[in-house]
Design brief:
about 160 residues, mainly alpha, Four Helix Bundle (Hemerythrin (Met), subunit A), 6 helices, Tscrpt_reg_HTH_GntR, transcription, DNA-binding, TF_FadR/GntR_C, transcription regulation
Amino acid sequence: MTATDEAADGLRAMIANGELTPGQQLPAESELCARLGVSRGSLREVQKRLAVAEDEAERHALDREFHSALCEASGNEALAALADVLRARGSHYSIYGAAEADTIRLAGDLGHEALINAMAARDPAATAAAATAHLSQTEAWLRRYAPLPDGPAAG
């Protein structure tokens, strides 16, 4: 186990036992390093990982809200139920943590924008095309970054 992993495990333990709570300011870096038995570099790496994980979780939440709103607006209960199933199955994927994350984010945003514009224009053909393109690209990324049976996503 690396020192960074040890620091991450130590922080998780502090959260689990209530020593750290959401929104609470962390103890001084020197104090945390001493308590966790790691260097400042290892602690800083964990803090970077946590920031990335938080950004990824926020991104997933916004994406989930966008797609839920689309399903609700469609009035199609079968589509909404299918979206719930797909969301649950895809919760283990980590495409926003991939090496090409910036490209994926941009393409996803552009896909959402195309959908919004097509719907605002009340253009069913353009909406269907935008939805098909967005879903096809997302499927390709999900296949590429599918979680391995016993570990992180491939890629």
